[in-house]
Amino acid sequence: MTPNQPPTRLLMPDEALVILNCSRSKLVTSAPIPALELYQGACVPHAREHFASDPARRARIRILSAEHGLLRPDDLISTYDRRLRTRADALCLHEQTVSGQLDAELADTPALRHLLIIVEPLYLLALQQVFDRPDRLEHLAIVTSPWAWHDGLEHLRRWGWA
Fold it and tell me: Measuring CA to CA, which of 31, 98, 107, 157 is 20 to 30 A from 60?
């Protein structure tokens, strides 16, 4: 879904945000580690590799977790096993955690106008706050398969991030 024409210029890091699905596949750890290192499935490994040498853009990744809501790449977390299984789970996550996190993200990043979301449909429900603020976004791209990094990469190219 792309409501407006995507940009074809180099976006500064604070102008964009990438939200990825968490994954069932995680490192098993005895101590908390950065979220971007914990998740081993879906498109997280691709994002980790893609942004490895670009800390400013790497910092613009968020991982949507059923346990924690939106995580920053360096948020320290431990292995857990929780998945969104129902619409009610997703809406509860939105109301209890994600809504406030998205509001804070928008408030803390006034230049944010471009959003790429790569999550499965059930997780998209937890991000419904995004759709309540269409005035804030020039470009919203949604990829509904958490394994479709190649589709997300197309948008990153338009942003000058690939």
Answer: 31
Q: So what's the pLDDT on residue 132?
A: 85
Q: How much is the pTM?
A: 0.93
pLDDT band with cut points at 50, 70 and 90 for residue 5? low
Tokens linked to 154: 């197309």
Query: What separation, in Å, do the N-terminal and C-terminal C-alpha atoms of the chain show?
Result: 20
Domains located in the chain, CATH noted: 13-158 (3.40.50)
Closest CA to 45 of 142, 129, 146: 146
CB 12 within 8 A of CB 111: yes
Confidence of residue 159 (pLDDT cuts 50, 70, 90): very high
Residue spans of alpha helices (H) in the chain? 35-38, 44-50, 55-58, 87-93, 99-108, 121-125, 149-158
